[in-house]
Design a protein that fits this description.
By secondary structure, the chain is of the alpha+beta class. The radius of gyration is 20 Å and the shape is globular.
Length: 196
């Protein structure tokens, strides 16, 4: 068993996990920095003086006693402001500040672009594409790359693992995925479900 990192939507941060995982699995990374690079979008632009890149990261609380918890400030990309947080944080972490003034001095800049494409109304997404596919069991040689529509990113993303084209929301090509999920399936979409 080894330590890996994964993005947790519950805490909106990268957390450590322990177990028999593979970096070829979705949402499994060797380090917290790899996880942050893979899961956090810098608002569609490369920060080049507009705002320090740390302002786009979600702080990860550590462990401490209740008496050691304290108030800090962090920049929230959701509200585009510095907000107060309470817990076991350290100012040595990225995007954690002792005062609101310190946070605003580093992170108070206009946000350019948008973190994700504009949301597609759920009624415009085919029902079978609203399901998150679950990988089955197979050998390493049987694993393969597929595509699946993500309601979080509003696009078809590549997935790797033990999936079957017979499952809902699993496609051989990105074009086939988009055609089936956003256009309600057009002629030829079945070709994208077949291998070979």
């Amino acid at each position: 068993m080894a330590d890996y990192y994964t993005y947790s939507s519950k805490s909106d941060s990268c957390v450590r996990i322990r177990g028999c995982y593979s970096i070829y699995d979705r949402n499994v990374f060797l380090s917290r920095d790899d996880c942050r690079r893979g899961c956090f979008i810098y608002n569609g632009v490369t920060p080049s003086g507009e705002m320090d890149p740390q302002c786009y990261l979600s702080p990860t609380p550590g462990r401490c006693r209740d008496t050691e918890k304290d108030n800090f400030f962090t920049y929230s990309t959701k509200t585009a402001t510095c907000t107060q947080i309470y817990g076991c944080y350290s100012v040595r972490d990225r995007n954690v500040f002792l005062t609101r003034t310190a946070c605003e001095a580093v992170c108070d800049a206009p946000i350019l672009g948008s973190p994700t494409p504009p949301p597609i109304p759920i009624e415009n997404v085919a029902i079978q594409c609203r399901v998150v596919p679950s990988p089955g069991r197979c050998t390493e040689q049987e694993r393969s790359n597929y595509f699946s529509y993500s309601t979080k990113t509003h696009t078809c993303t590549e997935i790797y693992g033990c999936y079957s084209l017979q499952d809902r929301n699993v496609f051989l090509t990105a074009i086939g995925c988009l055609r089936e999920c956003l256009l309600g399936g057009s002629s030829g979409s079945q070709l994208d479900r077949r291998k070979g």
